[in-house]
Amino acid sequence: MSFLDSLTDFGFGMGGQMSTDMAIDLGTANTLVAIPGEGIVVNEPSVVAIEKATHRVLAVGHEAKSMINHTPDAFSAEHPLHDGVVADYDVTEAMISAFINKAAPRKYPWQPKPRIVVCIPCGATSVEKRAVFEASIQAGARQAYLIEEPMAAAMGADLPVTEPTGSMVVDIGGGTTEVAVISLGGIVTSSSLRLAGNRMDEAIAMHLRDLLGIKIGERTAEIIKIKIGSILPFEDGRERDMVISGQDVITEQPKEVTIQSEDVRAALQAPIDEMVTHIKETFKKTNPDLASDIIQNGILLTGGGGLLAGLDRYLTDKLEIPVWTSPTALTNVVMGCLKVLETPQALRQTLMRTK
User: Rounded distance, CA 123 to CA 119, Å?
Assistant: First the structure.
């Protein structure tokens, strides 16, 4: 390797320009991009609007999400990631490329491409991992390093992941619920359930269809979950209500109804209880010493789905282990990826784990 090549590999291009390396939380619902020294610079929905005939990308992120269910037949707004993994390779590549360019546009053609650290579900297959890696390279990365989501979340939340003690993470994203026990810098046991925020939204939509005879879209269901969703009565003792608009199931005419937070709670019961069963099964696989640590230290609840009102209290009751919601639940994964990017030793370990 020449001296110039070695400089380029460490991030220096001609004229002393450095490449802008990036950490990417590539989520089913949202994608976040962070840059060393700057923090989070992109936080947008993982949605791409395309022209069907030419497969040309029309919009990405917020603009594309606003087009969901509002596009003519010639266009479509798509989620290229399903259940945390690549569902449409070409569209995923286009989305990553757009977010990389938005985060740090390359000013000169000779400027080095960025290295990126990107998260993957802990249950991803080798084929699914390869798809994320290849899409990242084709989208403009010089090198791509993969890290399991719960490990990144634990690092982002400043858990003692390198110490000889057990830490347990429940990361509820848009497409997957990741559960992992971490100790001495590695994942001891883990599992990935392809049920998370999106399934909660679907459950809300189906329940309101059956209960009130109204059809609503995914955006409305998500807004309902965020505004009045809960799995236990609210701590202030007051229930919420909300006026929503949709389509009558029978007449297909516009319909407006008032929904109660109790209705949303009933819709969420089944998917949340499935998560509880999944967490219990993962805990059973944990050796007694680490299980003792977890009982003492509690379980970290993170990810957007972890912010559901009352979920930490509900899980504490069902699991009989203290569960606490991270105050930085939405950003732990991308900040953990950023820490890996900034720590050469961690970067080498991550590369070894994902080969």
Answer: 12
